[in-house]
Structures are given as structure tokens and as C-alpha cells.
Amino acid sequence: MLKVETVYSVITQLNIVIAREIIFNDKTLINNAGTASTKSLLDYTGEDVTTLMGTNFESCFNLCQLAHPLLKASGYGNIVFISSVAGLKAFPICSAYAASKGALNQFTKNIALEWAKDNIRANAVAPGAVKTDLLDSLMECADVNKNVVEAVVSGSPIGRIGEPKDISGVVAFLCLKAPYFKCCYISDKLFF
Questions:
Q1: 123's torsion region: left (phi>0), alpha (psi -120 to 50) or beta?
Q2: What is the pLDDT of residue 106?
Q3: CA–CA separation, 12 and 116 (whole Å)
Q4: What is the pLDDT of residues 18-58, one digit of tens each?
Q5: Looking at the annotation, which residues are catalytic?
Q6: Residue 87 — pLDDT band, cuts 50, 70, 90?
Q7: Record's PANTHER family (predicted)?
Q8: HEC letters along the chain
Q9: pTM, two decimal places
Q10: Half-sphere exposure of 71 toward its Cβ, with a 13 Å CA cutoff?
Q11: Closest CA to 172 of 120, 110, 117, 125
Q12: Beta bridge partners of 190
């Protein structure tokens, strides 16, 4: 098994490459990294929590730090985080996942506040259940209760599992360059 320090070193090097390629060209950072684990609160291990927080929150934190000089130099910058409704509302068997997304939601607000002076906006999109390979694999796990997904779907205005295309329009809107807006103060917001 790899040491945590080795994994973080590789992730940091990869994040630098990704930040340079994406940010330099587009002036936008979309943080869409994520993983999930569904367990009872008492069944989570320290390793589970480290993995969830590292993937869902810390990787976004690190990419933002790396991207800041490029976003600032662009004259305007946009950061969009893909969060989850689980960071806003309690659901069974996903407490550590929800905590990582809740941290991401708060981080969005802090970045928007701290980096507004650098003309960088930050927003988060917090969808419910979305049809992805990750959701498919979670639903195949024996410990995932289909009622959890049904609870998320029943609380959704569209009443079904979302599709990636349902989210992409909001993300694209948030990435528009400020002159397209009559008022370009859309920052520090969660869209769900």
C-alpha cells in the first residue's frame, strides 16, 4: 500500500499540471473531483474519512491555491465547485460524504469573500442524485439502501435522478465572462 505522503505528492504534482493547462486557457476552474462512501456513521474508518475529505475537499482547496495566480492575472476568474445537496441536508448512511461537501460549500463562500478583490468569483452547484458511474457503483453495493436515493429524488423538483446535462447549463452560465452580465455580482452562491 502506498504511503499517504506519496499519494499527496503525486496528487500535488498532477494538480499543478491540471491547473496550468485548464486555467491558463480558460480562466475558469471547475472543481468536479468527487468520490463517495455509504456507511453507517459508526462504520466509517479514519481512512474512509481521509479519502473522502482528501478527494472531495482538499483536492479543491489545493487546486484553488495553485490556480489563484493564473485566475488573478487573467483579469477575471471563475471557480465553480460541484458539491451536493448532501452538504446542505442530512441523508442516511453518508455522513462523512456530506461533511466533505459541507466543507466545500463553506469554502466556496470564503473564497468568494477573500478573492473578490482579485476579481475572482466562486460558486457551487449542489445537485441531488445524478446518473454517473459513481452513483451506479454505489447503488450496486449491498449496504446502499435504495430508499436513500429515493429520498434524494423525492426531494428534487424534477422528481427523478438527474443527468449530467441538467447541471452543465448552470455551470456554463456561471463560467460566462463578467461583461455578459448587466450585473456581474454572482458569487458566493450555491445552486441546487
A1: beta
A2: 94
A3: 25
A4: 545 444 446 889 988 888 887 888 998 999 999 989 999 99
A5: 97
A6: confident
A7: ENOYL-(ACYL CARRIER) REDUCTASE, TROPINONE REDUCTASE
A8: CCCHHHHHHHHHHHHHHHHHHHHHHHCEEEECCCCCCCCCHHHCCHHHHHHHHHHHHHHHHHHHHHHHHHHHHCCCEEEEEECCHHHCCCCCCCHHHHHHHHHHHHHHHHHHHHHHHHCEEEEEECCCCECCHHHHHHHHCCCCCHHHHHHHHHCCCCCCCECHHHHHHHHHHHCCCHHHCCCCCCCCEEEC
A9: 0.76
A10: 27
A11: 125
A12: 124
Contacts 24+ apart (CB under 8 A), 61-67: 61/107, 62/11, 62/12, 62/15, 63/15, 63/18, 63/19, 63/29, 63/31, 64/29, 64/31, 64/107, 64/111, 66/15, 66/16, 66/19, 67/19, 67/22, 67/23, 67/29
Domain architecture of the chain: domains with CATH? 4-191 (3.40.50.720)
Q: How many residues does the chain have?
A: 192
Cell digits of residue 34? 468527487
Mark 9-43 as b/e (b = at least 16 C-beta within 10 Å): eebeeebeebbeebbeeebbbbbebbebbbbeeee
Do the Cβ atoms of 122 and 154 come closer than 8 Å?
no
Which cell goes with 18? 491540471
